[in-house]
Design brief:
seven-stranded mixed sheet; 14 helices; Aspartate Aminotransferase, domain 2
Length: 458
């Protein structure tokens, strides 16, 4: 074994001296996070983009100074925390952006310190075995056979379309509702596929009758993309009916469950995903309803043999004689070459909480969303779009026009008091609250509604 680290150069995060080098730095980071959060004092910094940029510019100073600053870690972490939109604050509820679990974040530190790269087995022996086992388990939880780890829903959807193209030919046509995620038509463009057929979804979900008519009239192979958890309203397409139509018409089925996949952990809500197992591919994303640090996406596949189309060869990474000798070939597990072991935090979370623990978190946020919807419904000054299916609630001040609704949202952002999203499910502008924080309490939601009410012009 080699000796200790050279004290004349900066210490490394791993190796014999790694933990001792990290301990004081972690204390610095944690103290800076605390100080920055206290300075912010709310869900996001006040003052808007110009004020935040000015603070960052002041803290950063010379980006690449001739002589280094030993206090840079404290200064910049403090600045980032003070200027963050913090998803752990109950009033930060705009997007599918969850507060990560502490245990998952701690696991992510280990992944960063060890820095395995999942492009060859000799760079990631244990990580490659862990990824294979955990990805397969998550795929089977969704009713499929295997899964690839991705950076999130966008990459998963792109891979799903790529597998469809390579399996059914370059004339395969994407068919989706107009509430489908923007990454799907973008992936069709990126892959050179024909223009997608986008079916109007006036009620926010894909209409089986319209889909049947479309598939009947459509020549050539089709890839139907359904959604389990739309971005705007958290709605779930009628998956069993869609699956039956795909079977009847010989169409391929992809289900984007980036948001809704977390319902699989819940005994109370799992039935909402009935039909998921009929898909050829399914997008899963655990940095939404899974409380993982970004990134934590997967693409589950029903037919692992289709993954052979992703195979790449680079003699320095997967030489034939190495693979024949039993070294796993990892290049066919992603379109990326260098990949960090994002599976570690997922594995630690699954093992630590179990299905019941994760299910309880899912139930908690879904319950809070229903409570918030009931509060809005009972308030004479607000309109509720609909009862939440997962944990997204759309609402708007009754007397406000679209310009006023937009102004309310921006005013709360500028003042640093609340982070709400926006959506147009019916052509009108609605405020969007996405409840992903399991620590959110009913009084937090009542306070959020009061903030909106107080910011709405009379």
């Amino acid at each position: 074994m080699s000796g200790g680290q050279d004290t004349s150069t900066p210490p490394l995060a791993s190796g014999p001296g790694g933990p001792d080098a990290l301990r004081p730095l972690l204390a610095t980071v944690l103290d800076a996070l605390t100080a920055g959060t206290d300075e912010r004092g709310g869900p996001l910094p006040a003052g808007g983009p110009h004020a935040v940029t000015a603070h960052v510019t002041d803290a950063l100073g010379d980006v690449l100074p001739d002589t280094g600053d030993p206090d840079a870690l404290r200064t910049l972490v403090h600045t980032l925390a003070a200027g963050a939109a913090d998803p752990a604050d109950p009033l930060c509820a705009a997007h599918l952006h969850c507060p990560p679990l502490a245990v998952a974040t701690a696991a992510d530190l280990a992944a960063s310190a060890l820095n395995p790269s999942l492009d060859s087995w000799d760079q990631a022996p244990a990580a490659s075995a862990l990824e294979a086992a955990v990805a397969r388990t998550l795929a089977r939880t969704a009713g499929l056979a295997d899964a690839l780890v991705t950076t999130g829903g966008t990459e998963s959807n792109q891979l799903a379309l790529l597998l469809a193209r390579e399996t059914h030919g370059a004339d395969v046509r994407l068919v989706c509702g107009d509430s489908a995620h923007h990454s799907l038509p973008h992936a069709a463009w990126l892959l050179g596929l024909p223009d997608p057929v986008v079916i109007p979804a006036p009620h926010g979900t894909l209409d089986p009758a319209a889909l049947d008519a479309t598939l009947t009239a459509l020549p050539g192979p089709a890839l139907v993309a359904a959604t389990a958890g739309t971005t705007d309203a958290g709605l779930i397409d009628p998956l069993p009916e869609i699956a039956g139509l795909c079977t009847a018409h010989g169409a391929r089925l992809h289900i984007d469950a980036a948001y809704g996949a977390g319902l699989l952990f819940s005994d109370r809500h799992r039935d909402k995903l009935a039909g998921l197992e009929a898909a050829h591919t399914v997008t899963l994303d655990l940095h939404k309803l899974g409380w993982q640090p970004v990134a934590a996406g997967l693409l589950a596949v029903a037919r692992p043999s289709e993954l052979t189309t992703l195979h790449q060869h680079a003699d320095y990474l997967n030489a034939d004689d190495d693979t024949e000798a039993g070294l796993p070939d990892l290049l066919g597990r992603s379109l990326r070459t260098t990949r960090r072991p994002d599976i570690l935090k997922i594995a630690v979370t699954l093992k630590t909480l179990g299905r019941s623990g994760l299910g309880a978190l899912v139930d908690q946020v879904c319950t809070r969303a229903r409570e918030f919807a009931a509060l809005i419904h009972e308030h004479p000054g607000f309109d509720l779009y609909d009862r939440p299916v997962i944990s997204t609630v759309l609402f708007r001040p009754t007397a406000a026009d679209d310009a006023a609704v937009a102004a309310v949202r921006r005013r709360l952002l500028h003042e640093g008091r609340a982070v709400l999203g926006r959506a147009r499910p019916d052509g009108r502008l609605w405020l969007k609250a996405t409840v992903l924080n399991p620590h959110t309490r009913p009084d937090d939601l009542a306070h959020l509604l009061k903030l909106v009410e107080g910011s709405t012009p009379a």
